[in-house]
Amino acid sequence: MEKTFGIIKPNAVQKNLIGKILTLIEESGLKVVEARMETLTKPQAEGFYAEHKERPFFGSLVNFMTSGPVLLFVLEGNNAVENYRKLMGATDPAKAAPGTIRKLYADSLEANSVHGSDSTASAAREVAYFFGDK
Ligand code: CMP
Questions:
Q1: Of 9, 12, 86, 133, which has fewest CB within 10 angstroms of its CB?
Q2: CA-to-CA distance for 54 and 44, rounded, in angstroms?
Q3: Which residues does ligand 1 sit against, CB inside 6 Å?
Q4: CA 79 to centroid of ligand 1, rounded, Å
Q5: CA-CA distance, 121 to 69, in Å (whole number)?
Q6: Considering only CA atoms, which residue is closest to atom 6 of ligand 1?
Q7: How far is the CA of 19 from the centre of ligand 1 (A)?
Q8: What pLDDT digit, counting tens, does each position of 71-86 carry?
Q9: Helices 80-88 and 120-131: crossing angle, nearest 10°?
Q10: How many domains does the chain have?
């Protein structure tokens, strides 16, 4: 069993898409083993996305990710990292495959509705970042 980390981003929470997105995740066979809803602070979002801090979109991304509540969660399952990434689809919704979460529910490249860890190493860091206090 492998774990991965995900976020339902502010645009999707605002549009009442939590249920639809979690349904897709659960129907794919992944299990939600931790979840917490909160509005991220700027330092929390900056730390989480630290690897992107030199990218031109960093400031806008941090503003967007702190613009409203998000759902933080941990998933468990076989090949959870890869399977959840496939279910999300490409980062850019214009390139996402039909039936993927981002194809169905993203509003833009930035407001792409969901985040997911991109490797098992990222998953370990990201799970610890938000759920490491227990
Ligand atoms: P996420 O998977 O959370 O990882 C980084 C986020 O930055 C990405 O989803 C998008 O929300 C956002 N983003 C904005 N512009 C870009 C870009 N050009 N390339 C990658 N990510 C971008």
A1: 133
A2: 17
A3: 52, 57, 61, 91, 109-110, 112, 115
A4: 23
A5: 26
A6: 110
A7: 23
A8: 999 999 999 999 999 9
A9: 90
A10: 1
